[in-house]
Target: Carnitine operon protein CaiE
Amino acid sequence: MSFYSFEGLIPVVDPDAYVHPTAVLIGDVIVGKGVYIGPNASLRGDYGRLILEDGANLQDNCIMHGYCDRDTIVHSSGHIGHGAILHGCIIGRDALVGMNSVIMDGAIIGEESIVGAMSFVNAGFIGKSRQLLMGIPAKYVRDVSDDELYWKRLNTLEYQDLVSRSQLSLREVTPLEQMEPNRPRLKGTTEVKPKGEMG
Model:
């Protein structure tokens, strides 16, 4: 694992979180219960504090960084897609940031909102709850539908489940030279629930 202290501050990781061995956490980083941090994620807490609240995920190749005068926060069940950059911003509870999006300093993404893939949210943007934001710069398109929020939550549950699956089974290995006969396929473990049960 790549954990580094910086000026006396050591990252804090809840025992029920999963941090991939290739991720790098530096300094003032706080990781909550049930958080998933993917391969090659970089969390540089060498200026401002970085916080991932319970049940959030930060996927492969994501970057979190900030400034001394503000915390960079992903609130509970926040869902940060592959390659996204969060810089000095706040991601609301149960919100999703799409792949390769950039959220700039002082921006606030409202709870249950969705930022479309490859969007750029300007510094200082103040969002509201359940907004669909898209584009460069990102703009409000419409409200997030019940169906979109349902599928977002289902995908977040899959990442929360991936925490325990990774803790139990992910190991560094030497690759096989050829595929074995009757190679099994991975099975998802998140049961699809009726919308009324998703909260």
The chain has a mean pLDDT of 94.
